């Protein structure tokens, strides 16, 4: 077998079924952890309703994404099909604006998933700091977060080096270790009578809540933050090129994960507020599950909870790592990123993208707080969802895509649903999250979000220059190989 040329963009291998895709995406329910204490800060017990509505929003959006993922089975989920739909076929000009839009959507999606690695590395460091006091004497929380990130990122690169199938096996193991105890923590408070219904009904909304413009903008921002967690199970569609049977595997993996997310998000938040009350949650905004475990299981439950949460965080880091690396591979394949990011090893793993993502997140950890990083990341996620939903609408209406086979079809008229939720994301959620950031943590995270997103523009122009140069070089080589005059001149000289 001839060795693959180093400058070629590699191809992902079809090696998983819907159960393995679900296993990898099962890290998504853990995305509630950074926001368990954040959303009740603004909405008290109504946070329970926000999670339920946000997961239902995920069903509305993911129904469109499932159709797109099966219509374009070689595209990697949201970043893949948005790029494919918006590019102009056989474009003759210098720069295709449609391709830029599709590429920006993919970049936004990459930035939405990418910081999950930094956020949960900080949380892992924080829990280790509390679990082992001796570590607190040796290292600061920042140093522990950095060490945790370095160890976890390196370990996941090694595990996933041999392809997505092995990553799914790790997902099965971590899902058993982390999700089962999480479900127990969500259900046990209700079963043991530790949940006080008055904690929910007596504090449904803050006493100073009003339906004025200030609070409506806060509500949009809260839904944008919640969407970052509760709608993220669309990641099951990003492995479209790696499913053995995309037309059946994609919708199965998506909707199975969505159902799990609905019950887990609603029950976990309800259990936390029901046991601790809103004031108790606000007293433990980073790790409210620990006092819940203490109330239900005693002191021993605290140790078990921390170990479970660390395993859970590694699972969601893996989910984000695989999703963001596939997004970079997809962008490189479409010519929207330098081709080096599309390189895969012989097992089909985009290893260059994984190394770059790991290094980028080690830098992000220096931002210090999960809330600041999440706020910046949510800006990218709202842009990615908005553009992807508009891509779905274009794919339904544009003649170039009208006759494509659609193994899974959303219900009739779903493009109207996509338009509504596209407009909710852009501009409403985007305005809301920027406004909320300005109130909560200042403008730093907003600037980080917009700077990272804007960096895509010079990178994209460089990618177009690289592509034109490669095409010109290939054309020159092709013409010289078929030029009799050139051959004759070289033979007579």
UniProtKB/TrEMBL annotation:
Listed GO CC annotations: plasma membrane
Keyword vocabulary terms for this entry: Cell membrane, Membrane, Transmembrane, Transmembrane helix
Positions of transmembrane segments: 21-39, 45-66, 107-130, 142-162, 169-193, 213-233, 253-276, 296-322, 348-367, 373-393, 414-435, 441-463
Pfam families per the UniProt record, alphabetical: AA_permease_2 (PF13520)
Membrane topology reported for the UniProt record: Multi-pass membrane protein
Compartments where located: Cell membrane
GO molecular function, one term: transmembrane transporter activity
Region span, Disordered: 473-493
InterPro entries noted in UniProt: AA/rel_permease1, APC_superfamily
Keyword Flavoprotein: no
Lineage top rank: taxon: Bacteria
Family matches, as PANTHER family: AMINO ACID TRANSPORTER-RELATED, INNER MEMBRANE TRANSPORT PROTEIN YBAT
Identification of the protein by name: APC family permease
